[in-house]
Each structure stands twice: as C-alpha cells, then as structure tokens.
C-alpha cells in the first residue's frame, strides 16, 4: 500500500488515506500473491499514535495494516472505512477463502490497541475490523458498524485476545456479530450492543476447537440473531473453560428465543437478565385452586410456573433472577422476581390475567370478583282480588352497581316452581300482583288460596339473594251497596248506586248489578252484568 516496513517504525499525527494493496491468485502455483496491508505492511516493530487510516483497500489481508510476526502498538487513532476484498477459490477438493481483517490482520505478532476507534470497516470473509492470529490486547476503544461476510463482524480471533472497557456496537456477520472466537478470549467491563448475526448475535464460539472463554462485568444489550442473541457455544469436540459471570443481558432477541446457548459444562453465575430472550419449555400462571369467582377483599394469589428449555445455559438460580410482569385486563400491574404474587384488592369486575417474562407471554386466566346483593319487598304479604291490582316494590342493594336479574318462583312443599324472570332490574322496580297471579294460573287450575312467592336477585358481579312473601288469592269480595233515587216518576226511576269494597274502602269499578224493571242505572264505574255479587 503506502508503507512497507522492514525496520522499527513510529507513525504519529498522520493520515493514511485511499491507499491500495492489490493481489492476485496464481493459477499455476495455486497461491495468492501480494494484496496484504492496504496502507501498511510491517515485519518489524510498529508504533502508531494519533493517526487516521481511512478508505484503504487490500485484496487479501489487512485492509489498512498487515502485521507479520512483530510487535505493534496503536494509541488514540482512527481506522475507518477500510476494506479487504478477498477471494473464494475452488482448488480440487478444497475451497479457499481469503479476505481477512478489514482494517488489521495481526499475523503471529503481539499487538496492543488503546483509545482507538474502528468504524465501517469490512472484510469479504473474516474479521470486519480485526483478524487476530496471534496475541492481541484492546482497551478503551470503540468498534462500530464493522462487517464481515462470514465470521467476526468486528473481530475474528484465532488465538489470544484480552479486551477491557471497549464498546462493540452495530457490527454484523454470519457468525459472531461482534466477535467470533476460535481459541482464547477474555472480555472485561465492556459493552456489546445492537450487534447482529445469523449465529451468535454478539459472540460466536467455534464448537470444534478447544476454547478458553471468560466474559465478566459486561453489558449485552439489544443484540439479535437467528440463533442465540448474545453468546453461542454449542460444544462438539473442544472445550477447556467457559466462564460467564457478573454480566447484564438486556433486551437481546433471537428467533430460537435464546440469549445464551452453551452446551459445555461451564461457570455461569451472578448474571442479570432483563427482558431478554430465554426459551421456555413451560410458562403457566394459576390462581387459587383454579377458581373462577372470588369475593371482594378475598386473597387472590397468582402462582408462576416456569421451566427453561436449556437450563444449563444460564445461572443455576435463573428462575430467581428473571422478572415477571403481571398484566390485569391488558394493563401492566406489577413486576416481580417471586414465584408467587398476591394481587391488590380488586373491585367487582371481570378480570383477565397474564404475565410476561423473557419476552414471552403466558396464557390468560379469567375470573370474576363478586360482591353481595340484598333484596326485600315493601310488605310480607299481599292480597290479590280480581279487579284490584297491587304493586310489589323491590328494595335492591347491589354493591357492583350493575342492573341485575330476578327469578320469580312459587314454593310447593320443599320445592320451587319457576314462574318468570325479569332482566335489567334495579332498586325500586315494581311488579303487579295481577302479573304473578297470571303466572300462577299457568300452573294451577283453581287459584283460591295463599301462595309463598320467592324472588331471587343476582347480577353478573353480585351473589344471589332471595326474599319471600305471601300472595293471598281472594276470589269473592265483601261489598256494600248504597243507592239513591235521583228522580222518581211513573215509568221512569233514576237511581245512583255505589258499590264499595269493605276491605279497601274504595269504590269497585265495573261492578256487575242485576236490575229488573224499566230502570236507568248509573254507577260510579258503569254497568256490568255480573251476578257474582
């Protein structure tokens, strides 16, 4: 590219921009030639301070820098928009991929990076910003929006890396959106956020080699993958030590619903999990004895049952760590880490309860909270005479303040026969004695006695309550007749007649009176031919 270093070199306060290192594949020798280090190729010690390396390009390895077995230190520098293109070559039974280290390829060297930003670097195959094949230490640096077409969106590690206090944000690859690891990786006090991959949204560990992996005091936030959002290690052959301790996993999502997928025996402890995907084999909520009704002020306890699909991938006490957010009628009510929760006092209503945890929603449970009701009548007994209608006034108390239903029945011995039902009833509702008598006539051929009438009130949220009264059916009536001759001439007598009920002291309308002779009759209610009186 710009610099081929064969001696110790210091670069300070410089800009290396738009340099190229072009290579090719030799068909006869089946080897790649040139195309290493778009800006710098070094085989001796190299120090870079406060320098910018932008828009450099290499065909094969190290879009900006290729380190060949030496010590390299980079301080307070910027490496942006560097690219390694790469080749894919089929030679016989082997397909060779080349295009590693979008910004840097550390090949068998010792490299230290401090206070440096790497943004928008890309690799055709491995390590969007860095491809490490030796020893690498990174501190106080930022890796943002780097991309690799295969593994390690920001960093692809083949040997040893120690990382402290760095930010890896919005990096992307097929495996390991931020980091792909094939050997030894130690990460402390770092943040991995919004990284994306098909496998291992933040970190992918190879399942086919011996791995030493230790991540401590890191924040994994909003990383995404088709399979395993934060850390993936599906052990096949390798595995030495795998440690995940004191990290925060927040809002990571994956199509397989896993933030972590670690199948090797490991040390996973003291981590925190907040609204992050965890695949659940079982997720239930139940309420006291699965009841459907409770009385107001009665204790209502929810019980949560959770079982993980891959419990060994998480802390042993994971069920005590994950939040459960309870929703009442689709409104968030409370968040708890406990396996039981007593609901606050609920007013009379119908309730639908569910909870969310690990970005999953439970099934609903449904129940009612009921209150008491009370019904009475204004009298304990009513008389029904043909032609006289009395009103029965209902006094109703319903603490749910809803309108309700009344069922009216007649008592025969110890049984009740239904007469009628009325709906949308509230306090002060009236029923006519004649109406009940008409219903009784559907059951009995001759009404001429006293009947015990039961009225039961209930509403959707009120418990049933009943009252009883006596309905006396009286067929014959005691009456008095007062008449007064208004005009008396031969052949023409006018008489005013009043028929009075002796019980109610009221005139009887339409009373039937039989008269003989040539008489004009005038009563208070008219003339009706009725010989029953």
Helical content, roughly?
under 10%
Stretches where pLDDT is under 50 for at least 5 consecutive residues are 521-533
The CATH topology of the largest domain comes to Pectate Lyase C-like
Mean pLDDT: 89
Shape: rod-shaped
Q: How many discrete structural domains?
A: 4
Q: Biggest β-sheet: count, sense, barrel?
A: 18 strands, parallel
Helices, by number, come to: 2
- What structural class should be given to the helix and strand makeup? mainly beta
Which CATH class of the largest domain is shown? Answer: Mainly Beta
- Gyration radius (Cα, Å) is 46 Å
Distance between the termini: 130 Å
- Beta percentage is over 45%
In the CATH hierarchy, what is the architecture of the largest domain at level 2?
Answer: 3 Solenoid
Total strand count, please?
A: 62
What does this molecule look like?
This protein is an all-beta fold and 533 residues long. It folds into four domains: 276 residues, Pectate Lyase C-like (3 Solenoid); 90 residues, Sandwich (Immunoglobulin-like), CATH 2.60.40; 102 residues, Sandwich (Immunoglobulin-like), CATH 2.60.40; 45 residues, no CATH class. It has an 18-stranded parallel β-sheet that branches. The protein has a ten-stranded parallel β-sheet with strand order 3-9-13-18-21-25-29-33-37-41, with no helix packed on it. A hairpin with a 2-residue loop joins strand 57 and strand 58. It starts with a strand and ends in a 10-residue tail after the last strand. The C terminus is likely disordered.
């Amino acid at each position: 590219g710009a610099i081929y270093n064969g001696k110790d070199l210091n670069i300070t306060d410089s800009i290396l921009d738009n340099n190229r290192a072009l290579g090719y594949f030799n068909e006869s020798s089946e080897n790649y030639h040139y195309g290493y280090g778009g800006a710098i190729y070094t085989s001796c010690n190299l120090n870079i301070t406060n320098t910018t390396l932008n828009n450099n390009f290499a065909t094969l390895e190290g879009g900006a820098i290729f380190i060949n077995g030496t010590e390299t230190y980079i301080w307070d520098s910027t490496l942006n928009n560097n690219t390694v293109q790469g080749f894919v070559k089929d030679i016989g039974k082997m397909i060779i991929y080349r295009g590693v280290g979008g910004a840097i390829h550390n090949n068998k060297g010792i490299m230290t990076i401090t206070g440096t930003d790497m943004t928008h670097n890309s690799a055709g195959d491995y390590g969007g910003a860095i491809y490490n094949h030796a020893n690498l230490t990174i501190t106080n640096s930022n890796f943002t929006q780097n991309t690799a077409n295969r593994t390690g969106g920001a960093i692809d590690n083949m040997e040893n890396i120690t990382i402290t206090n760095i930010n890896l944000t919005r990096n992307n690859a097929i495996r390991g959106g931020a980091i792909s690891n094939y050997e030894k990786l130690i990460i402390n006090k770092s943040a991995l956020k919004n990284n994306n991959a098909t496998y291992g949204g933040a970190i992918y560990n190879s399942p086919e080699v011996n791995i030493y992996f230790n991540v401590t005091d890191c924040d994994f936030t909003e990383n995404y993958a088709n399979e395993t959002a934060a850390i993936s290690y599906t052990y096949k052959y390798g595995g030495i030590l795998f440690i995940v301790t004191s990290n925060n996993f927040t809002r990571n999502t994956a199509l397989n619903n896993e933030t972590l997928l670690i199948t090797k025996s490991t040390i996973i402890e003291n981590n925190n999990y907040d609204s992050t995907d965890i695949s659940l084999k079982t997720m239930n909520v139940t309420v006291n004895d699965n009841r459907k009704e409770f009385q107001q002020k009665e204790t209502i306890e929810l019980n949560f049952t959770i079982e993980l699909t891959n419990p060994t991938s998480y802390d042993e006490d994971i069920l005590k760590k994950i939040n459960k957010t309870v929703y009442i009628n689709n409104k968030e009510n409370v968040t708890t880490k406990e396996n039981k929760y007593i609901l606050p006092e609920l007013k009379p209503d119908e309730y639908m309860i569910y909870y969310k945890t690990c970005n999953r929603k439970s099934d609903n449970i449904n129940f009612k909270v009921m209150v008491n009701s009370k019904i009475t009548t204004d009298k304990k007994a009513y008389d029904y005479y043909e032609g006289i209608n009395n009103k029965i006034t209902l006094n109703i108390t319903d603490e749910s303040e809803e309108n309700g239903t009344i069922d009216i029945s007649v008592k025969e011995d110890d049984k009740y026969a239904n007469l009628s039902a009325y709906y949308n009833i509230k306090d002060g509702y009236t029923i006519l004695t004649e109406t009940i008598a008409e219903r009784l006539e559907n059951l009995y051929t001759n009404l001429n006695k006293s009947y015990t009438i039961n009225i039961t009130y209930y509403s959707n949220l009120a418990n049933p309550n009943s009252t009883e009264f006596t309905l006396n059916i009286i067929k014959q009536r005691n009456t008095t007749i007062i008449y007064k001759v208004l005009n008396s001439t031969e052949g023409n007598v006018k008489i005013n007649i009043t028929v009075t009920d002796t019980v109610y002291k009221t005139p009887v309308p339409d009373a039937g009176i039989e008269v003989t002779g040539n008489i004009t009759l005038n009563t208070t209610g008219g003339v009706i031919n009725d010989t029953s009186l």
